[in-house]
Write a sequence for this structure.
């Protein structure tokens, strides 16, 4: 596989790819060798007018390719003290939404692919997850606690419409009365209103809808294939209207680019029916930092220096701080101001006023194994 990493984001001949977030493919950090594309000037000098430098990602559109992986297990476990769940299920590796800021991008290197364009164009669908989950829930020592869907990539990304893995998992969780939490920015969740409504009736579900910006142009560049802001507010309204507990996750807050929208995002979510809210500061682990900075230089060159300066002010001078307790919120004057603004806005809007209904764990009943009569 060739990973193109030699590039100049300010090259006037280089254009962003339509419908894609990443502007280049950083090398897979585990690869034993790298291929670096360099423009030596010959393409411009001898090519046709307007020709693009050879070896750079200049295709107007890159098709999505989906591979299948037989799942060996369903549940992923974590002991992170700053996460509200200790187990999750990820039906898909990679995400076609193409959000440039996605903290899950570096995980694609584990599959010998790039965290850049590969992450959003070369997807892996995990098959057999419902069978693996059924086996794991039947284990004698299993203790019921909420399972999070979309802990890594969005379980309602476009390929879910064809594959239906998330719906199959929800059907199983409803069958055995197991609580579940979901985080999404995909309108496809409305397909499953029937299952979510029944789960809610048993106090078994809570949904958080990710909100980033109300500016359509910012959203289009930041999250090229995710639902638009109006569609996400509609998701909140439809879920709330169906009696399904729903909140807004204002994430990521990007200093100097989207932070000024925090209060409007919260107010819009509250008007749509959200009763809870949370927020997270932009995270730039590993390859996400150069990808995001390149994206800034491509789409918002006049803001790039300011945005990166504010991010580093919130991260002790670095692009990222992975310490528990700091990675989600940052530190310093600017980060403290964001936290204060969020708290005051929630208090004014009546968000998080009522204690969140605890999801039920006492209704859990191990599912029947496939082929079992009892």
């Amino acid at each position: 596989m060739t990973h193109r990493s030699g590039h100049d984001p300010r090259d006037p001949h280089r254009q962003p790819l339509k419908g894609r977030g990443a502007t280049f493919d950083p090398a897979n950090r585990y690869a034993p060798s790298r291929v670096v594309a360099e423009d030596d000037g010959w393409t411009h000098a001898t090519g046709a007018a307007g020709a693009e430098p050879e070896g750079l990602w200049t295709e107007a559109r890159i098709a999505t390719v989906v591979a299948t992986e037989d799942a060996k297990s369903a549940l992923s476990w974590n002991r992170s003290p700053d996460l509200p769940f200790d187990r999750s299920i990820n039906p898909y590796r990679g995400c076609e939404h193409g959000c440039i800021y996605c903290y899950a991008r570096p995980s694609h290197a584990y599959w010998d692919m790039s965290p850049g364009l590969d992450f959003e164009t070369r997807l892996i669908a995990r098959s057999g997850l419902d069978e693996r989950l059924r086996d794991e829930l039947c284990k004698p020592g299993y203790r019921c606690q909420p399972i999070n869907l979309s802990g890594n990539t969005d379980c309602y990304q476009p390929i879910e419409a064809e594959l239906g893995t998330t719906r199959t998992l929800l059907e199983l969780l409803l069958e055995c009365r197991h609580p579940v939490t979901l985080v999404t920015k995909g309108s496809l969740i409305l397909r499953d209103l029937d299952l979510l409504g029944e789960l809610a009736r048993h106090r078994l579900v809570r949904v958080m809808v990710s909100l980033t910006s109300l500016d359509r142009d910012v959203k289009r560049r930041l999250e090229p294939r995710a639902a638009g802001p109006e569609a996400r507010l509609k998701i909140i309204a439809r879920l709330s209207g169906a009696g399904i507990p729903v909140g807004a996750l204002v994430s990521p807050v990007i200093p100097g680019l989207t932070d000024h929208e925090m209060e409007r995002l919260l107010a819009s979510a509250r008007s749509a029916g959200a009763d809870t809210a949370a927020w997270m500061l932009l995270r730039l682990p590993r390859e996400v930092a150069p990808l995001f900075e390149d994206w800034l230089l491509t789409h918002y060159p006049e803001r790039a220096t300011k945005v990166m300066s504010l991010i580093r002010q919130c991260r002790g001078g670095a692009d990222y701080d992975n310490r528990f307790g700091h990675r989600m919120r940052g530190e310093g004057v600017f980060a403290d101001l964001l936290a204060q603004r969020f708290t005051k806005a929630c208090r004014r809007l009546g968000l998080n006023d009522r204690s969140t209904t605890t999801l039920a764990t006492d209704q859990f009943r191990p599912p029947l194994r496939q082929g079992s009569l009892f």
Q: What stands out?
A: The first helix runs from residue 42 to 46.
